[in-house]
Design a protein that fits this description.
Blueprint (H helix, E strand, L loop, with lengths): L2 H8 L3 H10 L5 H5 L11 E5 L2 E4 H18 L6 H28 L5 H9 L5 H7 L9 H10 L4 H28 L6 H12 L1 E10 L12 H10 L5 E2 L3 E10 L4 H20 L3 H8 L8 E3 L5 H7 L7 E7 L2 E13 L2 E9 L7 H16 L4 H8 L10 E6 L5 H9 L5 E6 L2 E11 L2 E12 L4 H17 L5 H7 L4 E7 L13 H7 L12 E2 L3 E11 L2 E2 L2 H29 L5 H7 L5 E7 L12 H8 L10 E2 L3 E11 L7 H26 L3 E3 L6
Antiparallel strand pairs: 1-2, 1-21, 3-18, 3-20, 4-17, 5-14, 5-16, 6-13, 7-8, 8-13, 9-10, 9-12, 11-12, 15-16, 19-20
Helix pairs in contact: 2-5, 2-9, 4-5, 10-24, 11-21
């Protein structure tokens, strides 16, 4: 593909992706969940940053660009979660750009003309220039191609627009890098900190413990009071700050999966189809007209089909018929038209002619035949490619590299794989006329040409109508206060989607939740949503069970959530009392264990930096107490995550003095630097007034 063609088709995607990739350096995840407000903006405003509005008409094309990237990356298959991610990428870029531009102006950061020239066509090219104009084999930038493209923009307005976008993005990335360097250079690690970190990871402790597990008290034997809830909430209040408003939902799904009658109807249809398929005079046309899944009518290699089919079909001789066989929710019918051994990959070179620039296809074919003869008589592909080819490969001798089946358009692929090393062929494709030379064929494996039909097992319209009727009847009858009880009365299962954020692209049990989530954010607590929602395999009726606002949550908002922790806190008091009685008068951990009917457990070579007690769990408080204790002294009860503990330290083993303080500092600075970039951006965000109204639009 030529440089200009590549620029036109690829560079349109870099704007959103480029910013998002660089801003990942600043750990933007908190931006998605903090500083948001759902209501109170104009109907065309997606959000705002410190009063600077982000308009839908400007924002949505960037969402579409981000979505196009996902489609290109995943072959056009984009689900609801990917769509939400595409929207988030665009939002990250937009908000990040506004915040960082304000910071650049405040700090006086700029990119000079000389710097920009160097990044575009100098000795220190931007990573974007290297990406679009770099040689994949050598990694070197083709500066001649850069200059050619820069000159060509004077006569090509579309190319100039792409260059303007690219130049702006290069400048932004340069500013982002300068800002990142400022942050990096502001952090340091002292020798004391380096030594402490070294000890934390290398000092060893040997100790014994006895523990009383919370599970030793049955939940039914514990009575939790309001005071217990309040005490736990007050002690852990900062854990209950909601970064963004959330909604919790209950829903009922009405399945639209195929019934037994649907299955029988499809099976009957497939059996008739199989009979017709066996006798049709035009296998490829019949397959194309009747298959729900299109498989190219060309040679394919093993590994391209569903595993159940792939494992057997390549053992069938030409003329065989396979099926109908049901697997993976569909029936398969296959005719093996031909099979043979073929190269695994091909290395080729070519000259690509554009008929529109040569007076039409007939003239292009004449020139192609002439160039073919030149090559057959010993002419140089590199010379001809340089002189005639419109493809970017002309600068590398026409070399298109080594490729496997499925990498090229069918016409080019068939010519390359069906020929022999040294063959020169004239091939017509959607890109123009190719003069193709097969340089080398690598490997050999069996391939087959198949006429392939796949019929999906889908619910009938009768099944869908019946499910929709049930969903509608439930929606008409249900109220917010009887949702669960009415569902149970009718034998329906109630699903739960807890703490759903405004821009979330997924929800448990819901494969296409965005329309439902959007409506949920326009509803109040207790509301039954007024629509029957369509998922891939079900109709859904839902209602809002909880609305948790942004900011500090009240005890009532989290009471249900913290019940297990409060239960353990009450148990901890009960077990602490029991352990204190055992500690009274005891002069050893073994004596304490004996009073409790237990055996003290020894632990060898515990490290502060890895506070996991073997066979139990991670117990930060317990291990912290170990390293803060005197040797031989019994501890007081320690309330851990899994139970209440008493410990005694048998001894410590100090490591050899740190050998290379500088190296230790360097390792620590790397981690501190990464955290500091995130912290810096978090600080920018915390100081800003960010309103996010995307849920109204997406």
């Amino acid at each position: 593909m030529g440089v200009m063609t590549f620029m036109r088709t690829k560079m349109g995607y870099f704007l959103v992706g480029g910013i998002a990739v660089v801003l990942a350096l600043f750990v933007l995840e908190p931006l998605l969940t903090q500083g948001t407000a759902i209501m109170g903006s104009s109907r065309n405003t997606v959000g705002s940053v410190d009063g600077e509005d982000i308009e839908y008409t400007e924002f949505n094309p960037k969402v579409e660009q981000s979505l196009a990237q996902f489609k290109q990356q995943y072959g056009g298959n984009v689900n609801a979660q990917m769509q939400a991610m595409a929207m988030d990428n665009a939002w990250q870029a937009e908000v990040g750009a506004i915040l960082l531009n304000k910071e650049y102006n405040r700090l006086g950061l700029t990119v000079s003309g000389e710097e920009l020239f160097d990044l575009l066509q100098g000795k220190n090219p931007s990573p974007l220039i290297a990406q679009y104009f770099g040689n994949q084999q050598t990694g070197q930038v083709d500066r001649a191609a850069v200059l050619t493209s820069l000159k060509a923009q004077a006569k090509d307005p579309k190319l100039k627009q792409q260059w303007d976008l690219l130049q702006a993005e290069i400048e932004k990335q340069a500013l982002q890098q300068k800002y990142a360097n400022l942050i990096r250079n502001s952090v340091y690690v002292t020798s004391i900190e380096a030594n402490d970190e070294y000890l934390n990871r290398n000092k060893l402790a040997n100790f014994k413990y006895v523990n009383l597990d919370y599970s030793s008290i049955l939940d039914k034997d514990v009575k939790i009071t309001d005071a217990d809830y309040q005490e736990y909430f007050d002690a852990n209040k900062m854990r209950f700050v909601n970064p963004t408003e959330t909604r919790s939902l209950e829903y009922v799904s009405f399945s639209i999966k195929p019934t037994a009658a649907d299955t029988l109807a499809v099976k009957t249809q497939v059996e008739k189809l199989a009979a017709d398929f066996k006798t049709t005079p035009n296998d490829s046309l019949f397959a194309a007209n009747n298959s729900d899944v299109k498989v190219p009518y060309t040679y394919i290699s093993k590994g391209k089909l569903a595993p159940a089919v792939d494992s057997v079909i390549f053992n069938y001789p030409a003329g065989s018929f396979y099926g109908p066989v049901f697997s993976g929710n569909s029936y398969k019918l296959i005719k093996v038209i031909a099979s043979r051994f073929s190269p695994d990959s091909v290395k080729a070179s070519h000259v690509l002619l554009d008929p529109s620039k040569l007076g039409g296809e007939a003239n292009a074919m004449k020139l192609a035949d002439s160039l073919k003869k030149v090559l057959q008589n010993g002419g140089s592909m590199a010379v001809l490619a340089k002189a005639y080819s419109i493809d970017g490969s002309k600068d590398s001798g026409g070399d298109v590299g080594t490729f496997a089946r499925g990498a090229m358009v069918p016409e080019f692929e068939n010519a390359a794989f069906d020929g022999s090393t040294g063959d020169i062929k004239v091939v017509k494709s959607q890109f123009g006329i190719h003069i193709l030379k097969i340089e080398k064929q690598i490997g050999s494996s069996k391939v087959a040409k198949l006429a392939y039909i796949e019929k999906n097992l889908l619910p009938s319209s009768k099944t869908r109508d019946a499910a929709y009727k049930k969903a509608s009847a439930f929606l008409n009858e249900v109220k917010g206060d009887n949702f669960s009880s009415l569902a149970q009365k009718n034998g329906y299962t109630v699903g739960v989607a807890d703490k759903v954020t405004p821009t979330q692209g997924f929800a448990p049990g819901l494969d296409n939740p965005r329309p439902l989530i959007k409506d949920a954010y326009a509803a109040e607590k207790g509301d039954v949503l007024s629509t029957v929602y369509t998922m891939d395999n079900a109709f859904v009726v839902a209602h809002v069970t909880e609305v948790q606002p942004k900011g500090q949550l009240a005890l009532a908002d989290v009471k249900k959530q913290i019940q297990p922790m409060v239960m353990n806190a009450v148990k901890a008091k009960m077990l602490t009392e029991k352990l204190n009685k055992a500690l009274a008068g005891a002069n050893s951990i073994d004596a304490v264990a004996s009073k409790l009917g237990k055996t003290a457990t020894p632990v060898q070579n515990m490290v502060f930096g890895n506070p996991i007690i073997p066979g139990l769990a991670q117990e930060n408080k317990v291990v912290g107490t170990v390293f803060g204790s005197q040797v031989g002294k019994l501890s007081k009860p320690i309330e851990g995550d899994k139970g209440v503990y008493a410990i005694v330290v048998d001894g410590f083993t100090n490591p050899a003095p740190i050998g290379n303080t500088f190296k230790q500092k360097e390792t620590m600075i790397l981690g501190v630097t990464q955290r500091s970039l995130g912290a810096a951006f978090q600080a920018l965000q915390d100081k800003s007034d960010i309103k996010d109204n995307r849920v109204k639009f997406y």
